[in-house]
From TrEMBL:
Pfam families: Beta-lactamase. PANTHER family: BETA-LACTAMASE-RELATED (PTHR43283). Residues 44-357 form the Beta-lactamase-related domain. InterPro entries: Beta-lactam-related, Beta-lactam/transpept-like, Diverse_Enzym_Activities. This is Beta-lactamase-related domain-containing protein. It comes from the Bacteria. It comes from Paenibacillus antarcticus. Gene3D superfamilies: DD-peptidase/beta-lactamase superfamily.
């Protein structure tokens, strides 16, 4: 593999400790460099960056590869900004939990008590719990069933009355009967945050999560002076940044609209691992974090992009490790974003892992599964 490691620069972020200080094997962690180099040279991924922290200390933080997939604009940096796509759902879930803490919502509340469009015989039994756990039966994301034709027809003719458009047609399943991954469900949760809080979803997240945590490079709209630091796979990704869409008819960007960095996502993960607080800022109470991140689905089936899963474990908005064959501890809560990015919090090992492995491929198993195996097997 050594002949594949030529002319690829590695950049390291500032560490708090060496890996051994937090009981991690540095030699094993360093295998990530050759692992990612190999995938980059094979054109399976464009670039890679990762941050590993244990016991609240950053022990590994490196980047390599191209910042842009189609434009020669330099290298991916440890603090480069990247769209985190579906990892945004974690911020939506925390927002819902904050409103529950404030007594303004409750977890099994019927959505129809907030959104009048749900007051129908078909939708009246759908609750916040169903939306948070992807068990509402509402419009699974395009491609979830490996279907050859797109189904997100509801925005083709504009977003006016988008909630009614989302609810057209039959449910995929009865509420609570099966897991069907639904970004539309999280758009609805964002609308609920807006209605209940009285401010735009995006403004609520910024004011109550991102700014208090000091996440200074996390945005829904990347400022113009920072757009050159955004990692993109295709030129169109950068072009979209220059379009400021203020259309009030659009759904909230609560299913996948955030841009962030490895370091900012570590701060968010450390807040959760700390029981809701970070550097003196309380975002959630300890019991709220427990409710948010523990398992809530048992013996619930899922199709899940070709996988016939009989028992889909899930927390509230977070996927959940329940497979005893996986390297990460049972109870690790996690999310992955299209493109691709990963966010993992392992409470058993007091470990946070964040990585960006951008690629035009929809799925490169080695970039996610292989990466996790290398990291978790470094634990001493």
């Amino acid at each position: 593999m050594s002949n594949l490691l030529i002319n690829l620069r590695i950049t390291e972020g500032e560490l708090d400790v060496e890996p051994e200080a937090v009981e991690m094997n540095a030699g094993q962690l360093n295998k990530l460099v050759s692992h990612f180099h190999y995938l980059i040279k094979l054109d399976k991924i464009q670039a890679a960056s990762y941050l590993v922290a244990r016991h609240g200390k950053i022990a590994a933080w490196k980047s390599m590869g191209r910042l842009h997939g189609t434009i020669d604009k330099g290298d991916l940096q440890p603090d480069s900004i990247r769209k985190i796509s579906s990892i945004t759902k974690a911020f939506t879930s925390v927002s819902i939990m904050k409103l529950i803490e404030d007594g303004q919502l409750y977890i099994d509340q019927p959505v129809s008590t907030i959104l009048e469009e749900f007051n129908t015989p078909v939708h009246k039994d759908i609750t916040l719990f169903h939306l948070l756990t992807h068990t509402s039966g509402i419009l699974p994301v395009t491609g979830y069933y490996n279907e050859p034709y797109p189904r997100e027809w509801w925005g083709v003719n504009g977003m006016e009355n988008w909630i009614r458009k989302v609810l057209q047609g039959p449910l995929i399943c009865q509420p609570g009967d099966a897991y069907n991954y639904s970004s539309a469900g999280f758009a609805l949760l964002g609308e609920i945050v807006s209605r209940v809080s009285g401010i735009k979803y995006e403004d609520y997240v910024l004011a109550n999560i991102i700014h208090p945590l000091g996440m200074t490079r996390t945005f829904f709209d990347v400022p113009e002076h920072l757009r050159s630091e955004v990692c993109s796979v295709e030129a169109s990704d950068i072009e979209r940044l220059s379009v400021q869409d203020d259309n009030s008819l659009n759904p909230p960007r609560s299913d996948g609209g955030l841009y962030s960095t490895l370091y900012d996502m570590w701060r968010f993960g450390q807040m959760l691992l700390n029981g809701g607080s970070f550097e003196g800022e309380r975002i959630l109470g300890r019991k709220s974090v427990d409710l948010l991140t523990r398992r809530h689905l048992f013996n619930i089936p899922a199709y899940h992009w070709g996988g016939q899963i009989k028992d889909k474990g899930h927390a509230l908005g977070f996927d959940l490790a329940i497979n005893h064959l996986a390297y990460e501890s049972v109870g690790t809560y996690q999310l992955e974003g299209a493109g691709r990015s990963g966010f993992f919090v392992d409470p058993v090992e007091n470990l946070i892992v964040v990585f960006f492995v951008p690629s035009t491929s929809s799925w490169v198993p080695e970039s996610v599964l292989g990466t996790k195996q290398i990291i978790w097997s470094s634990l001493l």
